[in-house]
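Work Package 3 (structural annotation) set out to generate three-dimensional models for the target panel prioritized at the project kickoff. During this period the team completed the workflow that converts sequence records into discrete structure tokens, so that structures can be stored uniformly alongside our sequence database. As a representative example, we reproduce one entry of 79 residues exactly as it appears in the project archive.
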Amino acid sequence: MCRNLKHKRMFVNRIKGRLASRFNVAVAEVEFQELWQRVGLAVVSVSNDRRVLEALFEKVIQEAERHDGQLLRCEVAYQ
């Protein structure tokens, strides 16, 4: 668990880097930048095959759940 904003930044940078390098996705912190207790991340990828994206995001979610803390909400949207 994070104890302050500095610790949160280290945690966020670590998980963003891991997700981006492991799954070739773009990751950005989009919510709660000034709260040390919460993180809101957006993960984006592009494909012409929805099944590929579904499998990819399932793996991304599993990886995110493995880190310290709790995954409170997850939303997936396809355009």
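The chain is about 45% helix and 15% strand.
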